[in-house]
Amino acid sequence: METDSRQIFGIDQASKEDHLVKELARLTNHHSTNCLEYGRFLKSIHWAEASTIETIPFLPVRLFKEMNLKSIPEQDVFRILTSSGTTGDAVSRIFLDSQAAKIQSQFMIQTMSHVIGRARLPMLIIDSKAVTLGSSFSARGAGVLGMMNLGRKHCFALDENMELDSESVRDFLKNHGDSPFLIFGFTFMVWLYLAKLEKSLDINLSNGTLVHSGGWKKLVEQEVSHQEFRKQLSTRFGLEKIYNFYGMVEQIGTVFIESEIGDGSLTCPSFADVIIRDPITLEPLPNGETGLIQTLSTLPVSYPGHSILTEDLGVIEGVDDQNRLGKRLRVLGRLPKAEVRGCSDTFRSK
What share of the chain is helix, strand, coil (3-state, %, to 5)? Predict the structure, then answer.
């Protein structure tokens, strides 16, 4: 597993796959030995070995809602993360030991440094501090905690009742708005609460860099496209540096960040990859064809989440076609009739 941040997007696809297939096969064997349920799964499909990344066995993401899958002893569980979901629905439970939590945080920082730089800047968080409290975190809380490592002098824009704290935002911008600073929030919450900021404050965010993720479903319902999102933030607040990213609690620490051309497509880091599969046959599809997204990552060691079939639809739009090497993915939405799951779509998930 490489730790050199210069290589996060610096390895061509063919070389990356040569490395990944060996590491992912090793993880498959590791989880087979240390997770009883996963071992039974491999026996049921008669898995023997992997020759390509497409032959690495995958688990449906929904399985993490139905079973407690972990490859560490109970006494080594350091943190439990839970996914967001609609009220009454089951949630994924992801088990981390202290080493896994440390590694996943390090790799998120190394990945995001490619768009926000290496300096830890003052950070405005479009959320409530309440989501970060306790020993068990929702996907939203885990996302906020992970992103907090990228900044300093954190300011939460919302209070414990999810109401805009205008005074805190005003003070943050007074102290830090004249020099570079970071903004983080889940996409729909950024849209909703920055609109409120505009009504209550005369603000200039031109020195800010926004990183955001999730919650596109509600924006689509309001007919807010990716392009409109960026246009409005630029027009209203002078905010030009905007980066979307794609990730999930089931592979926490692994993020696919918006490509250099800023069109909403996403680039894969060198320690992870994506495969697009036919929703019916589950066979791999050629680049350019739409199907289910399978995500692979070398980070999940404490639980068998290294190869996951999501319920999201996507398409590979390019390979090694930018300065950031590897596959370029576009996420198109949820599989029809799949459970609607979104970190920011469910405000009460804490």
Answer: 35, 25, 40
Distance between CA 104 and CA 110 in Å, rounded?
A: 10
pLDDT at 85 over 70: no
Domain 5-58+256-334: assigned CATH number: 2.30.38.10
Burial pattern 217-255, b for ≥16 Cβ within 10 A else e, equals: bbbeeeebebeebbebbeeebebebbbbbbbbbbbbbbb
How far, in Å, are 28, 245, 285 from residue 280 at the CA level? 25, 27, 11
Query: What distances in angstroms separate CA 296 from CA 49, 54, 68, 299, one per listed residue?
Result: 16, 10, 20, 9
pTM summary value: 0.85
The reported pLDDT for the residue numbered 343 is 41
CATH topology of domain 104-246: Rossmann fold (3.40.50)
Q: What separation in angstroms does the CA of 152 have from each of 41, 329, 345? A: 43, 31, 26
* 331 neighbors 217 (Cβ within 8 angstroms): no
- pLDDT exceeds 70 at position 267: yes
Helix ranges (H only) for the chain are 13-34, 36-44, 63-66, 98-116, 139-148, 166-176, 187-200, 216-221, 226-237
Q: Is the pLDDT of residue 347 over 70?
A: no
**Sequence spans of domains, the chain:** 5-58+256-334, 104-246
Q: Quick count: other Cβ atoms within 10 Å of Cβ 199?
A: 8
